[in-house]
């Protein structure tokens, strides 16, 4: 399970084909007079597609991504892509703590890069050298440059692959884990399965157990669960089709970059802490970097696999390692009681509700996330 260096390099003909498709996009008309009421606003999509075709400089974005050290490794019969950023630390300072950061959907390793830089080089970002981390940022299986796992995509299976990456490929004896969305589920499974190697876990999308047989939900917990169900009724259409007809949707998105972009930005607007104004949180080139990576790797369809296989996931067992939650500021977690999380995270040492930073918190608020991670892991560095 050795790792080999890798650089992102998209052939010119792939970019030429992308541009040709973009300039020939056929746009729809809005179904509602209120922008975004029925999905992506056609006017805003048109503007983004025009910028993608005529203003976005992929080669500059590619060069910026390649300032990070990328690697590929074969684990359990599949290729895993990851960024491995080793700590910058002066001589005589403590050894860095290894930390794996896991993204979600419709995201990518790009979400974690700004946080990774801050964690690996604390002095360069105004923090203490003793808080340095060796940071590993993998691409989820089937996302971008990572191949799908063999067999079902479950959070537990990804945790098993990440454990092999951290301990087998990279040789770390102990490590911490952080993530949100799918990455949060993977992170919880890492803590549940490997308490001997996992120093602690930190999540932004808090788990809600579905097993209430032994202890029914309290009135506060039930109120939250009811509110979550009501929100899902208005937001869950995307999930239903990816869970039941992923290949039908993928056929359209793999052939239309504008359609792919619409599918992605619908969630970037809905789930991020942008107050409904997409470009108040996301600059165009950031959005288009993510969209281009999905397009050139042809992996939007394989990224749906974790939705199609979602029923195969089982509730996370009790996680006994030290845990932290920095709660995402998005509709799905509004009013979530700490007690629900404590049903699974039995040693919850850090609970924070900063009120900013949504589904893609590491991308939206990298300084906040870096500070939260340093704070939580600081007392754990000498444990074990």
Which structural traits does this protein have?
single chain; 384 residues; alpha/beta; Rossmann fold; 9-stranded mixed β-sheet; 17 helices; globular; Epox_hydrolase-like; aromatic hydrocarbons catabolism; Epoxide_hydrolase
Topology diagram in text:
Elements lengths: L2 E4 L5 H12 L18 H13 L3 H8 L4 E6 L2 E8 L11 E6 L10 H8 L12 E6 L16 H15 L5 E5 L2 H12 L4 E6 L15 H17 L1 H8 L1 H8 L3 H15 L6 H4 L2 H14 L2 H4 L1 H4 L14 E4 L11 H5 L5 E5 L8 H4 L1 H12 L7
Parallel strand pairs: 4-5, 4-6, 6-7, 7-8, 8-9
Antiparallel strand pairs: 1-2, 2-3, 3-5
**How many strands, what sense, and barrel or not for the largest sheet?**
9 strands, mixed
The overall average pLDDT, rounded, is 94
In CATH terms, what is the architecture? 3-Layer(aba) Sandwich
Category from helices, strands and their pairing: alpha/beta
For the record, the CATH class is Alpha Beta
Strand adjacency order, main sheet = 1-2-3-5-4-6-7-8-9
Task: Characterize the structure shown.
- With 384 residues, the chain is α/β, with parallel strands linked by helices.
- 42% of the residues lie in helices and 13% in strands.
- The protein has 17 helices and nine strands.
- The protein has a nine-stranded mixed beta sheet with strand order 1-2-3-5-4-6-7-8-9, with helices on both faces.
- Helix 4 crosses helix 17.
- The protein is globular.
């Amino acid at each position: 399970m050795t790792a080999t260096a890798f650089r992102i390099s998209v052939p010119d003909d792939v970019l030429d084909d992308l541009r040709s498709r973009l300039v020939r996009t056929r746009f729809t008309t809005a179904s509602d007079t209120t922008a975004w009421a029925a999905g992506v606003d056609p006017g805003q999509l048109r503007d983004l597609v025009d910028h993608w075709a005529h203003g976005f400089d992929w080669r500059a974005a590619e060069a910026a991504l390649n300032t990070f050290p990328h690697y590929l490794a074969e684990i359990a019969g599949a290729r895993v892509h990851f960024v491995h950023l080793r700590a910058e630390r002066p001589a005589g300072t403590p050894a860095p703590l290894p930390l794996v950061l896991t993204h979600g959907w419709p995201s990518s390793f790009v979400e974690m890069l700004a946080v990774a830089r801050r964690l690996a080089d604390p002095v360069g970002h105004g923090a203490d050298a003793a808080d340095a981390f060796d940071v590993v940022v993998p691409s989820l299986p089937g996302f971008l440059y990572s191949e799908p796992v063999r067999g079902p995509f479950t959070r537990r299976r990804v945790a098993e692959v990440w454990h092999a990456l951290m301990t087998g490929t990279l040789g770390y004896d102990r490590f911490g884990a952080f993530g949100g969305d799918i990455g949060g589920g993977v992170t919880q499974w890492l803590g549940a399965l490997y308490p001997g190697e996992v120093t602690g876990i930190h999540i932004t999308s808090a788990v809600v157990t579905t097993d209430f047989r032994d202890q029914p939900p309290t009135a506060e917990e039930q109120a939250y669960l009811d509110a979550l169900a009501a929100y899902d009724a208005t937001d869950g259409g995307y999930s239903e089709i990816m869970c039941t007809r992923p290949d039908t949707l993928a056929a359209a998105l793999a052939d239309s970059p504008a359609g792919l972009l619409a599918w992605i930005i619908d969630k970037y607007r809905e789930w991020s802490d942008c107050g409904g104004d997409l470009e108040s949180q996301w600059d165009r080139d950031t959005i288009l970097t993510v969209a281009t990576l999905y397009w050139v790797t042809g992996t939007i369809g394989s990224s749906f696999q974790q939705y199609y296989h979602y029923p195969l996931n089982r509730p996370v067992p009790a996680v006994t390692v030290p845990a932290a939650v920095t709660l995402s500021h998005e509709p799905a977690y509004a009013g979530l009681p700490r007690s629900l999380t404590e049903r699974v995270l039995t040693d919850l040492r850090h609970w924070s509700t900063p009120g900013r930073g949504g589904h893609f918190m590491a991308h939206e608020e990298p300084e906040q996330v870096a500070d939260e991670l340093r704070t939580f892991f600081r007392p754990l560095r000498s444990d074990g």
